[in-house]
Specification:
Blueprint (H helix, E strand, L loop, with lengths): L21 H4 L5 H4 L1 H10 L12 H9 L1 E2 L5 E2 L7 H11 L4 E5 L6 H13 L5 E3 L6 H4 L1 E3 L1 H7 L6 E3 L1 H8 L2 E5 L6 H4 L1 H8 L1 E4 L4 E4 L5 E6 L11 H4 L2 E5 L6 H19 L8 H16 L18 H18 L6 H12 L5 H14 L6 H10 L1
Parallel strand pairs: 3-10, 3-11, 4-7, 7-10
Antiparallel strand pairs: 1-2, 5-6, 8-9
């Protein structure tokens, strides 16, 4: 999935059989393609010092993440809404010999931030290893073309480089998603890479040394089942930045609004963008169940077993838009949101159902202007 590029990063336009551009047919473009114009404008405007092989300076990378307006009036859309200092620390870490670990509960934009940082620094966010319980050492180090291996024995031609190896050779940013989902013995494969900046290839009596510009961004959370703790030796190779849940309701509403609009365009959902009040109601439900109390602090509520993350709130609104578009009049209403809300809250059919019903009766039913949401949710439960 690697695309080694420099300079402008306009998406490729290979035509398919129907004559349409392949770029426009892709469901989700990589960050460096989707925001190519912004990255190009930042590169032209950026006169600050850049680390070796970085396309942008650390200041420009942070501006790309948080948004702003350039001297020529070009607007940069925010990719992350939150504490600026956290992003500055994350970007500055990658300019050192330390790797970056983005830590937080599910749905706090760890993968999103990881992708956009890699896109801004290296114009390539695809050097990715997806962590799962089945991730093997070969996914991090390298594999073999077994037909060539059997025919010719170990050789450079038979070796299949991993995204990590390619990032080391090309001086780019590698990404490891869900690091704590990877078995502990496989995690420790990273120790030599991060400490020595070298990947040994004992079968060829050789090694790959990391080129300048190489570094690693890993993401992890400690709320999932099946988490494998990092060894102390591996933890020491990372600088950890904890991404919190949005601090205020308005901040979370803006995050949901921006992502829903972006995804709605990408998915071509033929419905009107949801009003802020509808988004605010979804966000309020999520925040109150996440915090264990109503927004005014007057009523305590039980918390469900799920994380009630911002990412799930975005999914609820997107599902509501889809229902409104394809089975309604194109305007999202309470009935369109109800099933998504219940699906997000009720992960445990016994425990969470009790939590949700109690919240409906004690909070939603009694809140002014929420009777329509109460009725819609009661019909689905």
């Amino acid at each position: 999935m690697s695309r080694a590029r420099s300079g402008a990063i306009a998406p490729q336009t290979v035509s398919n059989d129907d004559g349409a551009d392949a770029a426009s047919a892709v469901l989700r473009r990589h960050a460096e393609e989707q925001f190519a114009e912004e990255l190009e404008a930042l590169a032209k405007d950026d006169s600050r010092p850049r680390p070796p092989r970085w396309r942008l300076s650390p200041w420009a990378v942070t501006t790309y993440l948080l948004g702003g307006t350039l001297a020529d009036g070009t607007p940069i859309t925010p990719k992350y809404i939150g504490n600026r200092r956290l992003m500055e620390v994350a970007v500055a870490t990658l300019a050192t010999d330390r790797a970056l670990l983005l830590l937080g509960v599910p749905g706090t934009a760890k993968s999103w931030v990881s992708e956009h940082i890699a896109a801004a620094i290296a114009s390539d966010s695809t050097m990715l290893v997806q962590g799962t319980a089945g991730t093997s050492e070969e996914a991090i180090r390298y594999g073999w073309n077994y037909a060539l291996l059997l025919a010719e024995g170990p050789s450079a031609k038979a070796l299949v480089p991993s995204p990590m190896m390619r990032a080391m050779k090309e001086g780019k940013i590698a990404r490891v998603e869900e690091l704590t989902r990877i078995p502990a013995d496989v995690q420790d494969t990273l120790i030599t890479i991060l400490s020595e900046k070298t990947l040994p290839i004992p079968e060829l009596n050789g090694e790959v040394q990391a080129a300048k510009g190489f570094n690693l961004i890993a993401t992890a959370n400690n709320r999932d089942r099946g988490v494998n703790e990092l060894s102390s030796a591996l933890k020491r190779r990372f600088n950890t930045v904890v991404l919190p849940t949005p601090e205020t309701a308005e901040e979370e509403v803006e995050i949901v609004r921006l992502r829903v609009e972006s995804m709605g365009r990408a998915l071509a959902i033929p419905s009107e963008p949801p009003g802020l009040e509808e988004i605010r109601r979804v966000v309020t439900v999520f925040r109150e169940l996440r915090d264990g109390q109503t927004s005014d602090g007057k009523v305590k509520v039980k918390q469900p077993t799920g994380t009630m993350s911002t990412a799930e709130a975005i999914s609820v609104v997107n599902q509501g838009l889809s229902l409104a578009a394809h089975f309604g009049d194109g305007v999202m209403r309470s009935a369109d949101m109800a099933s998504g809300l219940i699906g997000a809250v009720v992960k445990d059919p016994v425990q969470d159902r009790v939590v949700w019903l109690e919240y409906l009766e004690t909070v939603v039913k009694e809140r002014d202007g929420w009777k329509d949401l109460y009725r819609a949710c009661r019909e689905v439960v």
